[in-house]
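Worked Example 4.2. Read the sequence first, then its structure tokens.
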Amino acid sequence: MDTKLIKEIIDIVERSSISELEIEEGGCRIRVGKSKDKTRVQEIKQFVPAKSETEPKVALNDSLPEGDAIPAPMIGVFYTAASPDAKPFVKTGDKISKGDVLCIIEAMKLMNEITADKDGEIVEICALNGQVVEFGQTIFRIA
């Protein structure tokens, strides 16, 4: 990965409210995060999925939550409403139609509206407002 690009990514993370950003490009993954006192960079050459210790363990006989998963189309900060004082776009139990705005994901200072790709009902909201979501992470379940 280009050193200039890494420096730009570090600068973006330092200036933003997000605490961590992970990017994959050309067989290389880079994770940039910040703590109270400094920004850290971790470059991972091999793609080996890491299990989080806080990740829930699913036994073989446990069933997955009902509904179709709606994954995050990008890495960014998940917002349930257009502004802190606005009402959420959707709540659990809401009926939705194709094209309805479900949430906003902020990526690189751009606010991206995430819309429903089909009609249904919100069964579960899987991300917390203000949380950084990963590409492909389930953010909603609809039935």
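Now turn to a second chain, presented in exactly the same format:
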Amino acid sequence: MATYPNNREELEERLRKHVEIRMTRQGEYNRRIKMEFLNCDFEQKALEIRHNAIAEEMNPLNTMHGGIVSWLLDSTMGTLANAWVMVPSPTLNLSVNFVSPVREGDEVTVRAWLVHVGRATISAMSEMRVGDRICATGIGSFFVTENRA
């Protein structure tokens, strides 16, 4: 059964836990593509993370590979969705718009916010920035599973 956070402190605790789990226990790629919790907003149902772009994430054009960009957007929205309802919420749909390149050494921030939380699905939006420059945007939907544990 989904349980929603009651306040900012509870949301932040849930988000920090989910980011740590993603970075330590959910497979090699999750451990390699680092996400750092920056901030959350209870009223806006939002999460902001930081990531430093590294050489291994660059494509032949020396810009961040689109798969890494997509992973960061999806993972930020998914982390927020999972932490909000506290049941597994896998991605149903992901749409990404690539706006401007991310280069090696760039400090990337990704902000995600929940647009709708329903009994069966969650809708979210996200944007990736380097400083004030938007690099990519994403829209995702997530399936709210029943807690089968």
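Notes for the reader: Strands lie at 36-41, 46-52, 91-98, 107-117, 121-130, 133-143. The radius of gyration is 15 Å.
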